[in-house]
Amino acid sequence: MKKNVTIIVCLLLLFSSILPAQNDLHLLRDPLVRSGKLDNGLTYYIRHNAYPEKRADFYIAQNVGSILEEDSQLGLAHFLEHMAFNGTKNFPGRKNMLDYLEKNGAKFGENINAYTSYDETVYNLSNIPVIRETLIDSCLLILHDWSSFITLENAEIDKERNIINEEWRTRNGASTRTMDLLFKFAFAGTKYADRMPIGKMDVVMNFSHQTLKDYYHKWYRPDLQAIIVVGDIDVDKIESTIQTMFSDIKKPIDPAKREYIEIKDYDEPKIITITDPENISTNVSVYYPHPAQDKQTKQSESGYKTSLIRRLVSNMLSFRLAEIAQKQDSPFLGAHANNGDFLIVPTKEAWTLEANCKKGKIENALDALLTENERAIKYGFTNSELEREKAAFISTLENAYNNREKQLNSSYVREYVSNFTTGEPVFGIENEYKLAKKILSTINIEIVNECIREISANKNALIVVTGPQKEGLIYPNNAQLLTIFQNTSQKQLTPYNEKTLPSDLIEEMPASGKIIKETYNKDFGSTEWILDNGIHVVLKKTDYKDDQILFSSVGYGGTSLFSDDEALNAKLIRNVIPLGGFGQFSNIELSKILSSKSINVGISISNTTQGLTGSSSVKDLKTMMQLAYLTMTQPGKDKEAYNSFINRLRNQLENVSSSPSTVFSDSLMTSIYGNNPRIQRIHLEDIDRLDYDRIIGMYKELFAYPSTQTFTFIGSIDEATLKPLVEKYLGALPKTSHKAEYKNNNSNMRKGTFSKIFTQYMENPKATSTTFYWANLKRNLKNSITINVLNQILDLVYTRTIREAEGGTYGVTTRASIEKAPNDGRTSLQIAFDTNPEKEAHLRALAQTELLNIANKGPEYNDFKKTMEYMEKSLNESTKTNAYWLGILSTFYLSREDYHSTYLRTLHEIKPEDVQTLLQNLLKQQNKIEVVMLPKTMDQ
Predict the structure, then answer these.
(1) Do 761 and 935 form a contact (C-beta atoms < 8 A)?
(2) pLDDT digits (tens, 9 = 90+) for 170-217
(3) Residue 4 has pLDDT above 70, yes or no
(4) Which of 65, 269, 322, 543 is 20 to 30 A from 619 via CA?
(5) Do 372 and 407 form a contact (C-beta atoms < 8 A)?
(6) First to last CA, the chain
(7) What is the pLDDT of residues 801-860, one digit of tens each?
(8) Is pLDDT of 60 > 70?
(9) What is the DSSP letter of 537?
């Protein structure tokens, strides 16, 4: 989140008594980042980071975006981003650059990407294997070409028009249309009113070639660009290469001035209601705009303090709003407060209150938002709230500080991009951690209370209501909303009050257990403990993070154990149970107690398994174990919170059928599985059949036999510390002789060939197409890897043919898998895309043709080779993460499937003909389901 706020004069005066000599003190800069500027104006940032080893990120950030477009250029900034991949000086031809990178294990869309915003454009090559100097130089050469040497061939420009048109078609949903109307209203009279980066399609499809070239040469220039390289690299060599390689870029002579647009304050409150037939929720927002900090202020100690105070205030008020949302009579389903950029404008900031409203409760929700804000203005926050948020912030920073040697490249890159584009300080975690602790010690209750008054002081706010456009749905008019806004300050309110909570989660524990057996698994480097209550515990100490412990528990069972009649309640177990909290604490109370700790415990329930997932820092391990024990044994009940949840669910479901994507998903699931109640989503008419008590009972049944689950711990583990905690909390779980099992009562998929083509009203006409194949194959390690190889190859094939050659879609999504339980070996392949309705049948046939080509001739060797490089690269990266080992060990002890020991060897053994054979076996069972949704015309 970007923090760019100007310090209000009286707030500066208040701070001056605390920091009299520090208002102009600039923050310490991370000493490990090498930065500089070439004579031509190009900025660079370079940092060595050995985690992950032999990987690096290469970025070029540009202070250029759609805001610089003229009315005749709408969409050219984004169009230019696409063209950067279609030919440059040193990588000529369409996608030759991608071909080179993909051969070195990178993947388009994942490791190779870009984005265009209103005020910035950023290109990235991420997680590149820097195993050769030539590859490093090539990545720098790509950045060099993106800077000033994109070829922009006329034929390539014309090819790209259709792809961008399909991107617009795919993304132009209710939220995009709503934002477009909001920006036109909020920023009327400025360019921000009409500069959505995707642009206007009449411009995109018709601009002259020279218009794009003129835009490129006007704005893509070194004084507006920064090169960022972070990773396992030699900083001196990278700096020398940048200084040499990028010196041929000419310094601009009399360049166009890059101006930033200032947004004037409103003369009076502005109010707008925006509805859309496909919107599925109703929201109200209040924005209190105020100026943003300039870059110099942002990088001062007082500027950082201001941002930190506003973060604390945002979190404290959001906590209060979340507490209200849990109440049955709350007018909103959820709400929060935040201070940040005023919508899309970097030169203005806003204190923002937002709520998701219950049906017919827009006025009540607005009143509740403003009332709680006013309560904080009049009476302030409490010391306990402030101390809790201060502790929470320090806990977050402390965890980052403890893991400072194991930060991903992306975390540094984001910091440097923000420094260049918006002036955010380049801290370095060591500096920020020390500075935050120092500043937090000076922040008292008077300071935060003054802050909430100051950021809410602008009475010429922007009030926005958004929601469905639906017959019979009535919205309050502007006069009604304005009256609520103006009358809030006159309310007679009482101070906020909260009860004191204990710091320990458990007062009394049952008798502890004992570890009775210990074994070592040399294949995994893991240790297994067996407790006297039958529970199995697996642990593996790693150094992939210096302060991270992950855990999970898993056992067979899941919702398959319940009959079809109970499928409805079973769907919501995972959502409903946390509402009641655990042990003696409500959900909100637990959130407060745990807010200052680096800890998380969640429930995991599938059709065939149940268990827990969690994480903690080293110092919070005990609390995580306590929470895990309570989660398994003492689910609470909170009828008011449950009723509030039901209200939220009812509101969501009332309008979801107006969403074309929901209609399509329903049709697809019914086409594949029939009317199986275990597969179908919950509908509005189902809500009254839900049974809260039964849901709690079902949860208790699933977790009544803890000995059927294996608990796995990965990370910064000290066995001497973990062992007594395992014996105390897991050893106290009840001993049972129950056998872990699941039932195969999942509905069979439709056999044979089936096609469903239907029409649906939609605001943005498009065709949505999915083809689904399935078969029963043998599940083993080789087939599981091979189906993944096929999936990756199809991504390459469909990008090359359907996206690039045909210009038919923004992207084709493919999914392939081989199921373990309950249908061992059930294999599926799904191919999905959005497109122009006139092209759908042709593209669907083309997708089929390409699939049959692989089945008949095998995959192209180039595609196969790229995929194998990418999968080996991904494996090497994954094996150095705690999450990977948690998955490997959990899977092994659940199903005795080893996806590690021989994975790489098996991957190397796979040949193109193995992919061909697997696909042939998948297709020859002739189970194919096609579902296509076309737009309904007015006369249908």
Answers:
(1) yes
(2) 999 999 999 999 999 999 999 999 999 999 999 999 999 999 999 999
(3) no
(4) 322
(5) no
(6) 47
(7) 999 999 999 999 999 999 998 999 999 999 999 999 999 999 999 999 999 999 999 999
(8) yes
(9) E
Nearest in space to 929 (alpha carbons), one of 788, 856, 829: 829
817: Cβ contacts below 8 Å, ≥ 6 apart: 787, 827, 828
pLDDT for 5 beyond 80: no
Report DSSP state, residue 267.
Answer: S
The strand ranges marked E within 63-189 are 112-116, 121-129
Q: Is the pLDDT of residue 445 over 80?
A: yes
What pLDDT is recorded for position 472? 87
Decide: residue 694, CB within 10 A, 0-12 exposed, 13-18 middle, 19+ buried: middle
Is the separation of the CB atoms in 363 and 480 below 8 Å?
yes
641 to each of 283, 505, 580, 581, how far by Cα in Å? 21, 21, 7, 10
Three-state secondary-structure class, residue 747? coil
| Two tokens, residue 134 | 């030539």
Query: Is pTM, for the whole model, over 0.70?
Result: yes
User: Measured between alpha carbons, how far is 764 from 177 in angstroms, rounded to an integer?
Assistant: 10
Compute CA 716 distance to the chain's CA centroid, rounded to the nearest angstrom: 26
Instruction: Take residue 401 and report the two structure tokens written for it.
Output: 């500080």
* CA-to-CA separations, 414 to 55, 362, 410, 424, 892, in angstroms, rounded: 16, 37, 6, 10, 37
Question: What angle separates helix 9-16 from helix 445-455, to the nearest 10 degrees?
Answer: 170
CA dihedral sign of residues 395, 396, 399, 405: negative
Return the closest-CA partner of residue 816 out of 788, 839, 795: 788
Q: Is the pLDDT of residue 507 over 80?
A: yes
Q: What is the DSSP string of 578-601?
A: GGG-BTTB-HHHHHHHHTTS-EEE
